[in-house]
Structures are given as C-alpha cells and as structure tokens.
C-alpha cells in the first residue's frame, strides 16, 4: 500500500499532486464546503485519478499531515497491493433502513472494513449505525464521520464517485488482506449535578430535570450563548440511556428558540441520565494518543491513518489544535501518512472489538496497513 | 490587541512597534492566544461557579428532603411504637424481622426476642393451615385480610387475633398487622348465647305461664274430687247402715255390678297419684320460669341447694336410664348470686356428666346401674362448694387445657356445641369463684365450684 498526500490552499494552490502515472485505487478528499464545490479545483484532481474513485466530504477543518487548515482541500491518493475497495451511496432515511440499505449495496466478499462519510446535519447517526450493524457481517469493522460545515452548521456535502451529493451517506468498503484498526477516545470531563432527561423525542431534547434544556445551556454559556448552536459544543452532554450501559457523548446540532429545544447528533432518550461535560486540555490531547494506540492494535505500523476529530475539540483547542494531531502522529510513527477532518460526529466502536456507535467530541483514528 | 501584550510591547519596544509582516502576524497570534486563555479561564470560572451553585441548591433540596423523610419516619415510628395492634415485618420465610412493643403487652414476647422467630411456632396447631393459606394468598395477590387465628401467649394461653398483611414483593417483605379479638369474639359469642337463651327463656316462660293456669285448676278440681269422693263414700256408708237386710240384699247385686268396693279402694289413691303428678308438673314449670329469667338485674340471696335440685329436675330427661343420681346436700346459708346463671351452670355440668357416662358405657359396656352421678354441697373456708362428679370417660390430659375454649367440643354434631363449659366458667368468674377439675380417663370426673360468700372487690357485679 502506498499513500500520497496533495493539498490545495488559496495562497499556494495545489501542491504535491502525484507525478506517478499509475492509477490510484482510492482518492479520499476533505475540504471546505465552498472549496469542494469549485469545479476548477476538482477538475485538477480529475487529471490524476478517475472520477469514480474520488470520495470524501466537507469538513469543519482539514487535517493535512501534522497541520490543521480551514478552507483548504486535502487529497489522499491510495494505491493497494491486492486489496480493493467498493462504494455505495444512499439518500437519507430516518431510521435503521438507511444503514441496512447501505450494507446491502456493498459487496460483502472479503469485506474487512467500512468507512462511512455521512451528511452532517440531518442524519440520525444512531439509527444509521444500528442499521449498518444489522446489515453487515459481524467481523466487519465500521468507522467514519459526519461531514462538517466549518462553524456555520448549515449545509454539508459528501463526495461520491467524484460528485457532490447532499442529504445522503457514502460508504467505502475495504476488501482483502488489508488490516484496519480503529480507536476512539474523547477525554472530556463530566461535571456538575447528575441530571435526568425528562422530555425528549428521538434526537431532540426538550427538558432536563423539568427545565428547558436550552435555558440551562444558555446559563452555562453566558456570553457564548450568542454563538449557538455551535458554541454548545463547549458543553457536550454525557448520556446514559440505561443504568449500567456505556454512556455516550452527544453534541448539539441545532437549537429551536421557539420550543426551547436542542437537537443532538444522536438519540437522547427520555429517562436517560445526563451530565454536562467540559474540556480539559491535557486530557483532550492525551485522548489522541490513546485513540492512536488503540488503532495500532490491529494495524501496528500503518501506512495511512485517517483522523476524524470532532469540530468541538477544534474550537476548544484553538491555536493548540495541532497538539492533538501531533499526539496521534507520535504514536503512529513516521511512516504513517496522516489526514482527516473535523467532523460533526464520529462513528467507531467504544472499545476495540465492540460494535460501532455514534460518538461526539472524540478523536477517532482509523489505521490502514497492508503488510 | 490583548491589553497585556500591548503593555509588554510598549515596555520592550518603547513606542516603536514592529512592522515586519511576519512579526506582526506572530504578535497577532500571540494576542489571540492571550485572549483565548482569558476566555477559557472566564468560561471555566463561570462554569465552576454555576455548577457549585447548582450543587449547593441540590444539596439543600436533598437536605430538606432528608429532613422531611426523617420527620415522616419518626412519625411512623410513633405509630409503630404506640399501636395497640401487633405489627411485624416478616421475610419471605415468615421469620420475624421486626416487631412492635404491642407483642410484649398482648402476647408477653419481647420484640427483641422475636427477631428471627418463625411465625408458625407462634400459631395454634389447628390454625396452621389457615395461616399458611393466608401467607400464600398474600404472596400471590399482595394483600390479605381478616385471617383469624390463635397465637401463643408466653404463658401458654392462646389469644385470638384478626390479621391483615401486605407484601412488598420487590424487597421480599411482608408487613403484617394483627388485632387481639379474643375478648371481642368471646363477648360476641356470649351475646349470641344470651340472645339464644333469652329466646328459649321467653318461650319457656310463655309455656310455663300457659301451663300454670290449667295445672292449677286441674289440681283444684282433683283436690275437690278427692274430698267429694270421701264425703260421698261416708254418706253411702251411712245410708247403707239404715237399710233393711232385705234392701241390703237387693242392693248387693247392684253394688257388685258397679264394683263399688274396688272404686272405694282405688279412687282415693289414684286421685292422690294425680295430685303428685301435678305437683311435679308445677315444680317443672317453676324451674322453667327460673331458668328463663337467669340474671335479670341484681344478685339476690338464693338457696344453692334449691338451684341444684331445679337443675336436676331439668336434666332428668338426660340422666334417666344413664346413671343413678345421688345427692348429698349440706346446709349452706343463702348466697348473694345470680341464681339463674348458677342453675344453668349446674345443668350444663349434669348434662356433661351424663354424656361422659354414656360415652364410657358405649366404650366399655358398663351398665347404667353401676354408674353414679353425685352432687354434693358444703361450706368450706368461706366458700360455698358444689361438686358434681361422674363415673364417665374422664378428660384426657391432651385436651385438658382446651375444654373451656368456646366451641371446643369432642362430641358429634347435634350433641355438643362447645358452649357449656365456657358458660360455666363465665358464671363462676362473675361470682368471683374458682373451678377445680379432678379427672381420670376411664374412671370419672369431678367438677368442683367454689363460690365465695364475700365477693372480692373488682369482680363485675353483672355476669
Ligand atoms: N364430665 C366430663 N367428662 C368428660 N369430658 C368432659 C366432661 N365435661 C366436659 N368434657 C369435655 O369437654 C368438652 C367441652 O364441654 P362443653 O363446653 O360443655 O361442650 P359440649 O358439651 O357441647 O361438647 C366436651 O366435648 C368433652 O370432651
Ligand atoms: Mg356440654
């Protein structure tokens, strides 16, 4: 397996496009939404790879090697030694049917791993994952993320076979002797009183302990309330649906002033225990190391690693955002080409070997290795 | 630009700020970082303040909650401690986990001694199936009520309790409450008995009254006839003496025809027999009347020997052809008493004696002529003592403790109702007296009633 990383910025244009004439098996592209929609930029890619091998999505920030950029494009050209890829796309559906349909459209022979690139704002990520788990053979791992839209949170796109698609989910199947590892860690601390979700529907939260959820968030955000919904990422919600179950971290996608409700990136079932979370710089950065170490269990010296990190982390870390990328890279080693994006939600197993789940606020590392 | 950075620039560059574009960019980044640190710190401080405020509020609410709970708990404790009813919590094996002080007052068991005690060890053997059925029903439905059973008092006696329970299936706890209804049930039974007796009494007094009038005039008429016959025969003798031998001769045939000698000899004794019979009817009627009005009103001085004889009259039906009857009645002063109640008590003892003798005859074939039921009276140490003994079957030790229990009977349906000895006991208690029993299986039984002439204070005046 060989990986080559090219990038485009407004100041420097395309850099490092392949000179090699062998056709890549897969090109993973991440970029600002506006940039991905510029025909000229994509045309340049088209000269180096067949249109139908180009996949990707819009982001809340692009990871290029050790750097994090905004409004740029990063393109990863991948050549496999014998392994192969397959693709599928489906329009959004509200329930598990979506995931099952995607699973059924993929070729299952030698299938090792499925990478999911989803719409970032309208999808019910929990249902998507449940459907995929239903439809895929048990030994197939799943990881991926919800596409982003910078801080705007208005419109996201996915790239499927070189085409811009909205309101849908693209999946890439990896087949053959390829080894894929996944690790996903948050590093946030829960704080304050234990609360209960007293009113909710699907992924929409109305009340915590009888108080409108939005009012509680505004109180904690203070002046940052003006930055809603994105500023709500400062306080993810730790949700434990049933006592004894593994808690999941949920972040806000949209808010509704009229009803005082907030819609999260996944289910927030009524009756769940809930607690606010806040950032702890050191632990957030360390989470990158832990995620990378977990991903290395399956693929110990990866040639390529995909980093999907929550956009909320980027807003917390600000100028220090590259610290977490460094942390991941320090564990993976020099040989690994690292790329990825800041997302509106991550898909990964809680711990390695467990079924895939929707997460928020994590650093999710997927490692690929062919030797 | 961040104010701190501005001050630092002024201090280190003394007015002329750097213009090199890279340095300017770096300074902007540093300013941003300063700002970001400030913002983060502010957010963190705000977060911590709000969280601790919320925690504080919740802590206060929790404390109020706990205080309210403790109050409610101590109020419930007060009920638990003060309840005259027996309260207990059982585990699923019906072992006592906690019992209230009423267990000590009602049953003599200290609550602390009861912990771990299995309920069935306290229940009367005959009520075990009732208790188990109740336990089953409460496990199945969560509730049970109105189960009546006898519980053992520490002193060996039994108390009748009415129980109710509710089950906390989740915790496997049974909450039970029991009320001592021994006296209540006893009173209810006595009342029913009194009502029954009253009805019988009214009937009896009605009958007695109706019989009395004809008995009286039949008696008067018999006396009149007897006197009349006497006069008539005397007159006939005088007339006979005046007749000529011829006339006498003629009349002899007629007299023979009329069997005059026989009439002369037999009419007087037959009329006196009729008188005897009537006297007995009158006696019976009087006994019935007294029986009918047992304890109306105050105690009054009465002759116990007479009461005993009346009871014997009434019991004659049961005693005849069962056993010989012997009485040895000493002279006893009049006793202030409810003579009707005592008559009933004696009557019951005679009937029991008759039944016991019958039973022995049935079992061992002893002829009635060899049996004797003996009633004796005497004065002994300030008491009137009445003893009624029989040569009947005797009372087995096993049931010795139970014979005074209301409705306890060993007799077949129709013959026994188990209400005799309870009545005897009540009557004797109402007179401040005592009952002794001497009995040997296969030999006989003696009931000895001791009734004090001086009623100790504290004894109820009305039975
Ligand atoms: N004189 C006696 N001899 C033997 N047993 C007796 C005698 N008197 C009473 N008992 C026993 O006591 C029981 C209760 O007596 P009682 O209360 O008068 O009820 P009942 O005569 O209707 O059975 C009797 O069933 C009998 O077993
Ligand atoms: Mg009797």
Structural write-up:
The complex is a heterodimer of chains A (371) and B (463). Chain A is of the alpha+beta class. Chain A has helices spanning 33-36, 39-46, 97-105, 125-135, 213-221, 281-296, 311-317, 321-332; strands at 2-9, 13-15, 26-31, 54-58, 62-64, 67-69, 73-79, 84-91, 111-118, 141-146, 158-160, 163-165, 168-175, 179-185, 189-190, 195-201, 204-208, 211-212, 237-240, 248-250, 252-256, 261-264, 273-278, 304-310, 337-343, 346-349, 356-359, 363-369. Chain A folds into two domains: 2-185 and 282-369, no CATH class; 189-278, no CATH class. In chain A, strands 15, 16, 17, 18, 19, 20, 21, 22 and 23 form a nine-stranded antiparallel beta sheet that branches. A seven-stranded mixed beta sheet of chain A has the order 2-1-7-3-4-11-12. Chain A has a six-stranded mixed beta sheet with strand order 6-5-25-24-28-14. In chain A, helix 4 (125-135) links the parallel strand 9 (111-118) and strand 10 (141-146). In chain A, helix 3 (97-105) packs across helix 4 and helix 6 packs parallel to helix 8 (321-332). The model of chain A has no long low-confidence stretch (mean pLDDT 92). Chain B is α+β, with helices and mostly antiparallel strands and 463 residues long. In chain B, 57% of the residues lie in helices and 18% in strands. The termini of chain B are far apart. Residues 458-463 of chain B have low confidence and may be disordered. Classes of the chains: A alpha+beta (371), B alpha+beta (463). The interface between A and B is medium-sized, with 12 and 14 residues. The structure holds adenosine-5'-diphosphate (ADP) and magnesium ion. The site of magnesium ion has 5 residues of chain B, from helix 10.
Summarize the structure.
Chain A has 371 residues and is of the alpha+beta class. Chain A is 20% helix and 39% strand. Chain A has helices at residues 33-36, 39-46, 97-105, 125-135, 213-221, 281-296, 311-317, 321-332, and strands spanning 2-9, 13-15, 26-31, 54-58, 62-64, 67-69, 73-79, 84-91, 111-118, 141-146, 158-160, 163-165, 168-175, 179-185, 189-190, 195-201, 204-208, 211-212, 237-240, 248-250, 252-256, 261-264, 273-278, 304-310, 337-343, 346-349, 356-359, 363-369.
